[in-house]
Amino acid sequence: MTAYTIILANRSGGFQNYALFHERPSFTPNILEKMYAPSASVIAQARVPSGQQSRFYLHKTYYAICGSSQSTQLQGVDVMVYDERSITLGSATAEDTLIPGSSLSVKVVDQALHFDGKALADAGSKDSFEIKTQNDFTAGEAKQNSFMIGYGASYTGKGSSGPPATFIPQPNRSYHISPNRVFYLGFGYYTKDSIIGVSEAENLLKIDFAKLKTDVEVVHASDGTLNLQAL
Asked: Among 133, 138, 137, which Cα is nearest to 120's?
C-alpha cells in the first residue's frame, strides 16, 4: 500500500538531479546525540528534464532490526543486519484510546543480537514500537561487539531498504522507537543511501506528512526555488 505520494514538476528550465531524504527517528529514552543515526538518508533519486514530472511513491511499512556493525557509529557505518521483523506502530482511536504498537525482545546468540521470538504483549507508545533488551550482555560487551538495534523502513513495499537508523543499546532496557514522517527533497548530486546532516545541505525542501495530506506536489521554479503545493 502506498502511504505518501510526492509529485515533482521540473519547471526550472534545465535538466535536474533530485534526491529524496528521510529524517531520523526519535528514541525514548533519548539517545546521546553522538549515537544517533545521522540526520537524514537518501532513499530515492530522480533525473528529470525540464518540463517533465517524476513521482515518488512511499510505502508505510517499518521493520525492527537488530545486529552489529563493522566499525563505529561515529563514522557513519553501514549496519550488518542479523535479524528483522515487520512491526506495527502504536496509534490512537477517535476517543484517544491507545492501541499499542509492537513489542519485541532481543537476546545474544554467538556474540550477536537476535530477536528471541517471545510472544510479548504489545506496549509500543503512540507512533512507536518497542524493543526490549535483557541482562545477557553488559554495556561494555555491547560496545565491543558493536551491537545495534533500531528500525528500517520499506519505501518499495518489498522489505526494508535504505540505511537503517540504529544505536548501541544498554542491557535490561525498554526502548520506544518512533519513525519520522518528515522528508526532504533537494536537487544536486547525491549518492543513494548516503547520509547527510540536514543543516549542512543546501536547497532542501521540508515535507512533513504529519501536517500535510498524503499526496503533495513540489514545483521546481525557474528562479531555483522548490515550492510545496497540497493536492
From this structure: 133
CA angle 161, 71, 147 (to 5 degrees): 70
Smallest CA-to-CA distance from 57 within 128, 127, 8 is with: 8
| Residues in Cβ contact with 38 at an 8 Å cutoff, skipping those fewer than 6 apart | 24, 76, 195, 196, 197
pTM above 0.85, yes or no: no
Looking up cell 517471545, which residue turns up?
118
Is residue 176 a contact partner of residue 138, using CB atoms and an 8 Å limit?
no
Q: Is 215 left (phi over 0), alpha (psi -120 to 50) or beta?
A: beta
Give me the half-sphere count of Cα atoms (radius 13 Å) on the Cβ side of residue 100.
Answer: 10
DSSP 8-state class, residue 101: B
C-alpha cell at 166: 540504529
Look up residue 219 and give its three cell numbers: 514545483
**Neighbour-count burial for 117-141, b at 16+ CB within 10 Å, e otherwise:** eeeeebbbbebbbbbbbeeebeeee
49 within 8 A of 12, measured Cβ to Cβ: no
Q: What's phi and psi for 74, nearest 5 deg?
A: -65, -20
Span 123-173, pLDDT tens digits = 999 989 999 999 999 999 998 888 989 888 765 555 555 556 788 899 999
Residue 7's Cβ-side half-sphere holds a number of Cα atoms within 13 Å equal to: 12
CA gyration radius, the chain: 19
pLDDT digits (tens, 9 = 90+) for 29-72: 765 444 444 467 777 889 999 999 999 888 778 889 888 876 54
Cα 40 to chain centroid, rounded: 8
